[in-house]
Please model this.
Amino acid sequence: MPIPQPIAWSPTGTVRVLDQTLLPGEERYLDLDSLAAVGEAIRALRVRGAPLIGIAAAMGIAMDAAHGDVERVRQACAFLGATRPTAVNLHWALRRMERRAETVSASGGDVARALREEAQAIWDEDRAMCDRIGELGAPLIPSGTTVCTICNAGALATGGIGTALAPIYNLQRRGKGPSVIVPETRPLLQGSRLTAWELSRAGVRCTVIADGMIASRLRRGDVGCAMVGADRIAANGDFANKVGTYALALAARAHGVPLYVLAPSSTVDLAAASGASIPIEERAAEEITVWHGQRVAADRVEVWNPAFDVTPAELVTAFVTDRGVLAPDELARTFD
Model:
């Protein structure tokens, strides 16, 4: 089966998304016909992944622009910008849409048409960046080895073939695809529900493990590298990704496994000097204490549920971006 496409324009001009909360049991597409619906879909993780939520937000702004002026565009950007604080791609896309609206309005142009074109450009550019990351990352995977990833940084998280999974798809298309170790990614199981579904659908051999098994699995010695995505990369090379990435990075360092971070240019945030400047989203306690409507933790226990953790730059072997394969200390001057 083909690699999934999680976002599209519907025939009526609304934003069509694959509801990722229902996977792998049900493949259902939703037509989001209002800004509120787009915001709910992002907040509830129906659409997720740093690049993809930026694309979805841009499309939502374009859809809403048919009903208002530049001030309404500003308000819409502020509304969607509050949905997820950690992923910098969201705010990058919204700033781009707002600037485009202001420029076109000042020149007397058609704001609605311009924003539709800008949203499409953001999507098209992300697709091209994914392809480039796949090309650059493929040679980093040693022949005959296995890749370990975490969470989902594939087609379900982007406008193309993914970031961390892009090199795997690149090799798969050439008949050289490696097998992939997929940690489950608690508490919402994006690894087992989404990455394993996506990879198996594309014909890539994958093995799901519990998060607590990562170090033991790497100790076996057949994992050639770890490839992960990022939701925000600071100027010094610290990066935020799904919680559990830091543990994978520590295990990779202990076992001599290279750790590559794969992300588009829009994920680099030079305004964040280090990981300490990255806001970390904390999500509802029920994501941990309740499973399928059943309480699985004792009543009145305290819960800490960060959606992301920060991995320090010294644990990163290299960043793979559309601008090249970069050492952590090369980021600031490359993206300045």
Remarks:
- The chain has two domains: 7-130, 139-335.
- The radius of gyration is 19 Å.
- Residues 7-130 form a domain with the Four Helix Bundle (Hemerythrin (Met), subunit A) fold (CATH 1.20.120.420).
